[in-house]
Amino acid sequence: MLRTLVSQPTFSADWSSDYEEKSAEWFELFLDLLMVCACSNVAEKLKDDYSVAGVVYFALMLSIYSCSWSLYISFHARFNERSLLHYVLLYPFLSGLGGMLLASDPGADFTTGLVWMRTAAFFMYTWIYAMLPKARPSIWIDLVFLLVSLVLLFASLAFGRDDSSVVVVYAAVWVWEVPVHLFVGWKGYGIPTGCRIPFHIDHMTERLGCLVMVVLGESVVSLVINVHDKSRVTPRFFSMMQWAIVVIFSMAIFYFSVQPPRDLHAMRRSIFAGVAFNFLHWALYPPLLALGVGTKFVSEAIVNDTTLESPHVWLLFGSTALSMAIMFSLRLTHFIGRHPAPTDPHHVKMIKYGWWAIVGASPLLPLACAVFLEWSSDYQVDPIMALQVLGIFNVIWIVIESIVIHYLNAHGQTGFRNSADETAPLAAKAHHIRD
Questions:
Q1: Does an H or E element contain 79, and which?
Q2: How many beta carbons lie within 10 A of that of residue 254, not counting itself?
Q3: d(CA 134, CA 140)
Q4: What is each CA distance from 288 to 122, 210, 216, 292, in whole angstroms?
Q5: Number of H helices, E strands in the chain
Q6: Could you give phi then psi for residue 364, rounded to 5 degrees?
Q7: Which keywords appear in this protein's UniProt record, sorted alphabetically (predicted)?
């Protein structure tokens, strides 16, 4: 489609689930590239300070970056807009994120970047409000949330005296824009019945998964570039790199292995399931990035020819366990109550119950592995051994789950079918918002 100066925005999806595919746009990849830098900056903060306070600060800063990134994802998953005016508004949005990266730490410059992003998003939604009357009963909520965030950030610029007060404002902005906004969306406060705007499920899922890969990929990138001293690349270092990729790649497989079709997606299933699906992704990003920081400590231990310190062992295995627990919860949003299905044969029900038990137990095993490694080595854990244990554990878990899914699929028992009784309440409201 040719670009015009201005254009008529349209909805990206409707409640019927019968709408066109929507892939990531080229300008969304700009956001992803900037988020790679953001993940690298935040990872270094955790590497420098992995105390409890350091972990909280790390999680908050990553959440602020990902929250800002998602402002546009939430917009683009609901609306189509490709005019030159839209690109003009994208420029301050991208520049704001770039300014946050340059500032790196809380302060006036970082806050200014946050203001730029939210101001750009505010005008994007204002344009939708003006040009798409059917969106007005719902879109005013987004405008109010952005306006309150801007008030908080401007207050921080005017009255913020030290970094601690600025961090408190950032935390307040995140709570306001994520948990509170999701809660309001779940309850539907201020939105007339039948006037909700649907998200393009495929696009939203793709973009959330893309950020998962950005977070995971940061650790791989940091391991394989900027090795100026070639004497460091010993066979042991090369082996470490291989096992680190096994760990990261297997975590990606675990995340992407069970993605339901559009009709059975959590965001289609119910409002609560969709809200939970989105919120769990906010919780997933910090432990995934912390896992990458753990691999950095492994790399340093190999370069310095030392053992892995106990806090580093627990960072590596603990972040894996927490990531798996959240991924298990993501699967619950899609499949709990659906599998086993009441119509499944008895032996299929037993297999599916076994599958739930296996996946549900997955977060406990990395913790057990960490305990065993420290006990067996008298707290002198070899860094390569730590990665090998973690990588082998992940691979075995994936193979077991794949065998179960393969058997069910071969016998036509995966149950990925449309269910009219679950989708009908949503489809019935399509006429309220269809363009």
A1: strand 79-80
A2: 20
A3: 11
A4: 30, 13, 6, 7
A5: 16, 2
A6: -80, -30
A7: Membrane, Transmembrane, Transmembrane helix
For residue 192, is the peptide bond before it cis, meaning its omega torsion is within 30 degrees of 0? no
pLDDT in tens, 204-254: 999 999 999 999 988 887 777 656 666 667 888 888 889 999 999 999 998
Confidence of residue 415 (pLDDT cuts 50, 70, 90): low
- Are 336 and 234 within one domain? yes
Measured distance CA(307)–CA(79) in Å, rounded = 52
Q: What are phi and psi of 87, to 5 degrees?
A: -65, -35
227 with 187, same domain? Answer: no
Is the Cα torsion angle 260, 263, 265, 269 positive or negative in sign?
negative
- 111 vs 149: CA distance, rounded Å: 11
CA 180, 181, 183, 184: dihedral to nearest 10 degrees? 120
Closest-CA residue to 251 (of 296, 287, 305)? 287
Q: What are phi and psi of 265, to 5 degrees?
A: -70, 150
- Whether the model pTM is above 0.70: yes
Cα of 195 vs its chain's centroid, Å: 27
The residue segments making up the domain with residue 64 are 25-198
In a domain, 435, yes or no: no
Using the predicted structure, report yes or no on whether residue 367 has a pLDDT greater than 90.
yes
313 and 185 belong to one structural domain: no
Question: In this structure, is residue 338 part of a structural domain?
Answer: yes
Residue corresponding to tokens 């509170």: 180
Residue 343 is given by DSSP the state T
The total of other beta-carbon atoms located within 10 Å of residue 205's CB is: 20
> Is there a single domain that holds both residue 228 and residue 191?
no
263 lies in a domain? yes
Judgement on whether residues 251 and 317 belong to the same structural domain of the protein: yes
What Å distances lie between residue 245 and 46, 139, 200, 217, 293, CA to CA?
21, 43, 32, 9, 13
What total number of domains does the chain contain?
Answer: 2
- Phi-psi sector, 336: left (phi>0), alpha (psi -120 to 50), beta: beta
Q: Are residues 184 and 296 in the same domain?
A: no
> Residue type at 144?
V
CB-based contact 219:296 (threshold 8 Å): yes
Distance, CA of 387 to CA of 381 (rounded, Å): 10
Q: Which residues contact 37 (CB under 8 A, 6 or more apart)?
A: 101
Beta bridge partners of 79: 11
Looking at every residue in the chain, the average pLDDT score rounds to 86
Kindly report, residue by residue over 269-307, the tens digit of the pLDDT: 888 999 999 999 999 999 999 999 999 999 889 888 899
* Alpha carbons 98 and 15: distance in angstroms, whole number: 36
